[in-house]
Amino acid sequence: MTTAVATRELSAMDRCDRCGAQAYVRVVLGSGELLFCGHHARQHEAQLRPIAAEWQDETGRLQEKSPALADD
Ligand SMILES: [Zn+2]
Questions:
Q1: What's the 40 CA to ligand 1 centre distance in angstroms?
Q2: From the CA of 53, how far away is ligand 1's center (Å)?
Q3: DSSP codes joined into one string, 34-67
Q4: Ligand 1 centre distance from Cα of residue 24 (Å)
Q5: Given a cut of 80, is residue 5 above it in pLDDT?
Q6: Is residue 19 in some structural domain?
Q7: What separation in Å is there between the alpha carbon of 16 and the centre of ligand 1?
Q8: Count of CB atoms within 10 A of residue 16's CB?
Q9: What range does the domain containing 59 cover?
Q10: Would residue 48 count as lying in a domain?
Q11: Does residue 45 sit within a domain?
């Protein structure tokens, strides 16, 4: 399945689908896309990464921000 999904940088508007914290990981699946905070990305990575069409990980940017605001 080839779907043209433009890679874009995640912003403060992107929220984790699980907890509502700011999302730093975008996972593109055949059925759509999921957004996760760093915490939930790690929690779901083992399950989702093998089936993900794209795994956009911007958790590296967490280092540039205040840790108090970076995760849930
Ligand atoms: Zn989360």
A1: 5
A2: 20
A3: EEE-HHHHHHHHHHHGGG-SEEEE-GGGGGGS-H
A4: 9
A5: no
A6: no
A7: 5
A8: 21
A9: 25-67
A10: yes
A11: yes
